[in-house]
């Protein structure tokens, strides 16, 4: 096993990886920006190094600084977490040149799957269903218009190198296509440094279903079931659960087979996620692969009992998967709520600042992954995710009730958070019935805000 590993990230995922390293008897090295000098990860680490100013471009995205620290501290491997450089093929290549093991797939695989247009073509060759769309990238708004006319409106403009809902626009009216295409391309250029775009048919009101896979260097690929990530705001996930109430056993098995086929076609190694949209008729389509650990990975850990970060590190070491597909046993139901430091009363504006008292929920079947502690500072420079509350129970209804209780216990004094609106989601009839889709939050947000403390204060 590795003796020392660099954690090339921050926040709750840095803490999560640090804990996995400690349990594997690996010495973790934490990096931090000047804004994060008092972060929880730094306080828990024995070795921590400042890599630059607050701006991510000058610190967590600074490849030279990260590699310099890794070499100076005698690290053998680098874990990128999620976000930042986790899906940067050039960084994976740079690690390899420095004889550092990148905990994730190779740069070549990331290039193949990270470019959505190229990944789409690969999936078609592998027999995995894809949404009708452009064959490769589209260079101009005029070309996009021709593709849209051929496949029919509404369409979805997407950044080929994008993710997290950025560089994406829905187009219902042909008259708006040129403006929205240029908006999406500008956003893609700013967020990803790549403005290649492509088009696909917009599947209205789908479920967003993703399958967790793990693959080792010996050619073994195992899926760990699905997660339903359909509760989203502006394509940003807020609630995830497993298993999905929308799948019967036959559909689940067919989607799992497609997920494994997708990973095999890509020559994938390590942990990854195959994402699908599921339309109201039961047809499903591949949309993308995330070549990293996901924010919502604890949901799968709770139902499978498999530590995904530990598995990632074992795979990077060259060890075989710790389980076969036949040994995977998914039990009960898990739900995750993402607690963001945002103010729903102000359009979910970021809410950084000083944190007073923090009380995390606990008890049977409750897990909290967080960067919070009493007296910490929430930085305005990074993503607003502050914590994730995950629950597990024998049935879905029991899990919903457990999450209600957990959110009622969650206390953060100071910055506004999304706790109250998440709490109300757990009571909404559509969610309780499991009959929601990706339009759920858009359709019900005003009602949810009125029910919550935001409405009461108003």
From TrEMBL:
It comes from the Bacteria. Pathway: Lipid metabolism; malonyl-CoA biosynthesis; malonyl-CoA from acetyl-CoA: step 1/1. Residues 120-317 form the ATP-grasp domain. SMART domains: Biotin_carb_C. Residues 1-446 form the Biotin carboxylation domain. It catalyses: N(6)-biotinyl-L-lysyl-[protein] + hydrogencarbonate + ATP = N(6)-carboxybiotinyl-L-lysyl-[protein] + ADP + phosphate + H(+). This is Biotin carboxylase.
């Amino acid at each position: 096993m590795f003796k020392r590993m660099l954690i090339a990230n921050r926040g709750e995922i840095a803490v999560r990886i640090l804990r996995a390293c400690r349990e594997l008897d690996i010495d973790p090295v934490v990096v931090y920006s000047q804004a994060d000098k008092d972060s929880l990860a730094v306080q828990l680490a024995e070795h921590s190094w400042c890599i630059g100013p607050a701006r991510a471009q000058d610190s967590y995205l600074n490849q030279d600084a990260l590699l310099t620290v890794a070499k100076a501290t005698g690290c053998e491997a680098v874990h990128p977490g999620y976000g930042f450089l986790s899906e940067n093929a050039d960084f994976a290549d740079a690690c390899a040149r420095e004889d550092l093991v990148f905990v994730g797939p190779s740069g070549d695989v990331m290039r193949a799957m990270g470019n959505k247009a190229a990944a789409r073509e690969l999936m078609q060759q592998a027999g995995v269903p894809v949404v009708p769309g452009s064959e490769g990238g589209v260079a101009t708004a005029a070309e996009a218009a021709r593709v849209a006319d051929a496949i029919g409106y509404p369409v979805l403009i997407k950044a080929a190198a994008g993710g997290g809902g950025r560089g994406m626009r829905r187009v219902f009216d042909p008259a708006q296509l040129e403006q929205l295409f240029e908006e999406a391309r500008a956003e893609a250029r700013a967020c990803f440094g790549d403005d290649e775009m492509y088009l696909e048919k917009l599947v209205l009101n789908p479920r967003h279903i993703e399958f967790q896979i793990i693959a080792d260097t010996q050619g073994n690929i195992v899926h760990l079931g699905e997660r339903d990530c359909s509760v989203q705001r502006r394509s940003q996930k807020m609630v995830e659960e497993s298993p999905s109430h929308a799948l019967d056993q036959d559909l689940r098995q067919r989607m799992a087979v497609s997920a494994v086929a997708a990973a095999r076609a890509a020559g994938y190694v390590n942990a990854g996620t195959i994402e699908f949209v599921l339309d109201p008729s039961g047809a499903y389509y591949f949309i993308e692969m995330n070549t990293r650990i996901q924010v919502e990975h604890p949901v799968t850990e709770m139902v499978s009992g498999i530590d995904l970060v530990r598995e990632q590190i074992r795979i990077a070491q060259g060890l075989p998967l710790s389980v076969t597909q036949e040994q995977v046993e998914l039990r009960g139901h898990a739900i995750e709520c993402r607690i963001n430091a945002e103010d729903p009363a102000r359009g979910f504006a970021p809410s950084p600042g000083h944190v007073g008292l923090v009380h995390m929920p606990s008890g049977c079947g409750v897990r909290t992954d967080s960067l919070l502690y009493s007296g910490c500072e929430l930085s305005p420079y990074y993503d607003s995710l502050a914590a994730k509350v995950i629950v597990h129970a024998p049935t879905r209804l029991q899990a919903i009730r457990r999450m209600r209780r957990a959110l009622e216990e969650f206390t953060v004094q100071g910055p506004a958070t999304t706790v109250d609106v998440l709490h109300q989601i757990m009571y909404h009839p559509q969610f309780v019935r499991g009959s929601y889709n990706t339009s759920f939050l858009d359709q019900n947000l005003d009602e949810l805000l009125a029910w919550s403390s935001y409405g009461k204060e108003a």
